[in-house]
Amino acid sequence: MGSKVLFIILYILFFVISIFIGYGILYTAFLFVFLVLNLVMFFLLISLIGNLGFYLIEMCPLRPIVEAMFLLFGGLLFPLSLLPKNAYKIFSISPFSMVGYKFSMALQKMMSVDMLIHEISISIIWAVIFYLLYKITFKLGLKRYEGMGA
Amino acid sequence: MTAAITFVLGILFFSIELIAGMVFFNATDNILGFSKMDYLLLITTANTITFLYQTLAISSHENLVDTILDGKLDYVLLRPVDSMMYYSLYIMDIPSLLNLFVALILLKYFLSFYSLQILQVVLFLISIILATALLFILNHLAVCISFWKDNALSILGIPEYLMEFSSRPYSIYPSPLRFIFTWIVPILKSVNLPVLIIKGEKFEIHLIFLFVLVVLGFILSRYVWKEGIKRYASSN
Questions:
Q1: In the Cβ-directed half-sphere of B84, how many Cα atoms lie within 13 Å?
Q2: A98 and A123 in contact (C-beta within 8 Å)?
Q3: Which of B9, B14, B168 should one mutate to test binding to chain A, selecting the residue with the greatest count of A CBs within 10 A?
C-alpha cells in the first residue's frame, strides 16, 4: 500500500463530514463525482505522458516538468483568478486547473451546483481526449517497441 | 544531456517563481512591506543562495549517503587534508554554476533599481555567503545522519523544503513560525536578510547572530562528521 493512503483516508473523511457542515447532499454528490472524474482524468494524462517512454530515452525530467506545470497552471503558486482575464480563460480550463484550482474552489463551496456541473463536463472532455490520445500513442508506440529476449 | 536537463529545470523553477511574483503584484502594490522589486529581489537572492550551495556541495552531499552505505569513503579519509571540507567541496556541479550565473545577472539587474551605498552591497554579499554557509551546514547535518541510519532519505529533503519556505517574505508568516525560523533555525531570516539590507531595514543583530551561528554550525558539523566517521565501516 502506498504512503499516500493516509491522505486518501483524510479526503474520504472530509467528504463524509462535509455532508453535515452545510454542503448539502446534492453538492457533496457532485463534488464526489468531480473528484472521481479528476482522478480518472489525471490518471489518463499521466498515462499518456508515460507513453512518451516509447519515443524518449530520458524520461526522468518529465516529472519535474509536470510538477512545474501543476504549480503554475494548477493554481498552487497563486490563485488563477489573479491572472489577466484572457489568460485566466485559457488556463482555468486546463487539466491542471481542474485538479488544483477549480477543485479547491469547489471544496470551498465557491461554486454553484450548475458551475460544478460545468467543471465536471470539462473534466469529462479532457478525460475523453486523454483516453483517445493514450490509445493512439500506445498503438503507435508498440510499433516502435523492441522486445528483449522475446 | 543530464547536465543540460539540470540547468533547464533549475531555470524553469526559478522562472516560475518570478512569474508568480509578477502575478501577485498585478493584484497589489505591496505585500506586508515588500514591493514588487523587493519580492523579485528576494526570489533571486534565494535562488542565488541555492545555486551557490548546489554549485559547491550538492554533488558531494547527494553522493555521501551511498558512499557511506557502500563503505567507499576510505580514499577521502586517507588523504592528508580536512576530510569533511575535502569531501564536501571536491565536486563542482556545473549546471548549477550556469544557473548561478543567470541568477547573478538577474540579481545585478534588480539591484540597479535601488540607490545603494558600497557598504550595503558588501554586507549584501556577505549575508548571501553566510546564508549559503547555513544552508550547507543544514544539508551537511542532514546527510551525516546516514552514518547512523540506513534509511534517512526523508530527512535529506528537509533543508530543501526549509529553503523553499524561506524564499518568501518573512512578514507573511505568523509570529511563532517567524520566531522559530529567525532564532532557532534562522534560515527564514537568513534568506530574507540580504533584501532587508538593501531595503535599509534593521539587520545588524541578525547579521551578527547569523555569523555566530554559522561558526557554531561549522564546529557542530565537524563534530558530527568526526563522530560519524567512528561508526563508518569500510568495504575494503
A1: 19
A2: yes
A3: B9
